[in-house]
Amino acid sequence: MYWRFFYSYVLIPLIWLLFQGKGLFNEKVRRGIRSRRGLFTALEHSSKKVPPGKRVWFHSSSMGEFEQAKPIIAELKRRYPELRVIVTFFSPSGFEHGRKYPLADLVSYLPFDSRANARRFVRIVRPDVAVLVRYDVWPNHIWELQRQRIPVLIANATMRRRTPRRLPGVRSFHRAVYNAIDEILTVSETDAETFGLFSLTHPRIQPIGDTRFDQVTARSQEARKRHLIPDHILDGRKVLVAGSCWPEDEAELIPALVRLNETMQNVLLVHVPHEPTPNHLEELESDLSGKASFIRFSALNEYAGEQIIIVDSIGILLTLYAYAHVTFVGGSFRQRIHNVLEAAVFGIPVVFGPRHQNAQEPLMIVERGGAFVVNNSQELYRTLHNLLQDETARASAGRRAAQFVQMHTGATERFISHLASYLKLQSSSPRALPVEVSP
To answer: For 306-351, how does the pLDDT look when each residue is reduced to its tens digit (9 = 90+)?
Structure first.
């Protein structure tokens, strides 16, 4: 009770003031504040249009987390078309990308986490079950769900052993929050053990795996049907796809590519900047000038043998990985590596830099021989050269990368078995999918 009072009447006003202050300088935060104006009026209107049926509320912080909810939602809708799906986001980027999601009956921002807002939101939405994806847990909404005896589950739950949430005082607060949740379904045994360190008494904690593996597998099957690069461009070329690259990645990648072009005549780099803004594309082209020939993806109909294709659009990276012989995953020379599974699922070797501690999967694939860590441009050149030249080594590494993804699929099925018990649903198509979930 103490923590609920302290959070609602001390922390929440401070957090609200911080958001307002940050909104003065950060356009994304300002957009999130502005977009929540009139939220409850819109929510009342939209909720009345949702057809009758049991409602499952999925909340994600942003689009990356929502991708992890998609395989669950798709399978639920396939089995139980009468279910109604409510989707909320915290961030503007998540809402803007997800608002037209066809399987959702209602898409909204999550209101700011005051007690009054939480109570009003739950009253309007009337969920039968709430599913929080990954880590975006807002206490007042959780406590209101508990007060109304609405089951709450966390999907793809993760918790680092050295998390600051376990610090004295802070740990007691998070224990009060997590004890209001019914099931914490974790990615791995290690995550389950870390949640156990909070000495929780209410939730069931169980490792069931990560639905990202299911989602990336499904998306890869669709991606193989698309044809974004004409065959005549690819004929006889060894294709390197560099995905979600920041300037720090490019500083190591471009010198390595220049050396590759000096020693190999058939290398094609498909370069996907993380932020293909006009300014960044112009800076990148200026840096490449005199070092390598290049063309923008939007001008491929004028392709004349250029060594680099610079992708100046968004949303096609996973499809482009399907063309690769070798991949480089960006963010790994900056701060946080991006999704390595999107490359590994295609059965191709994955190369990345030293900044990969934000995720478990990169080193897990390295341990299985499907990925390679490099620390500078010289190591990057040697690794890429060896993989592009040695077809046997490349095929072996690619096979190990694909096997890593395949052996971790099945979390969606296991999560639905937990969820269905709260909805009093019987699965019509059970499948036993034994999968390794521990790192």
So the answer is: 999 999 998 899 999 999 999 999 999 998 899 999 999 999 999 9
Backbone dihedral region for residue 424 (phi beyond 0: left; psi -120 to 50: alpha; all else: beta): left
Question: Hey, what amino acid is at 141?
Answer: H
- Report whether 382 contacts 351 (CB < 8 A): no
Concatenated DSSP letters for 342-382? HHHTTT--EEE-S--TT-SHHHHHHHTTSEEE--SHHHHHH
Show the domain range for 143: 2-210+410-423
How confident is the model at residue 116, as a pLDDT? 96
Q: Report the pLDDT value the prediction gives residue 359, as an integer from 0 to 100.
A: 84
Token readout for 71 is 């395989």
Contacts of 431 (CB under 8 A, 6+ apart): 410, 413
Is 38 in the same domain as 17?
yes
CATH code: domain of residue 352: 3.40.50.2000
Calculate the CA dihedral of residues 225, 65, 241, 355 and round it to 10 degrees. -160
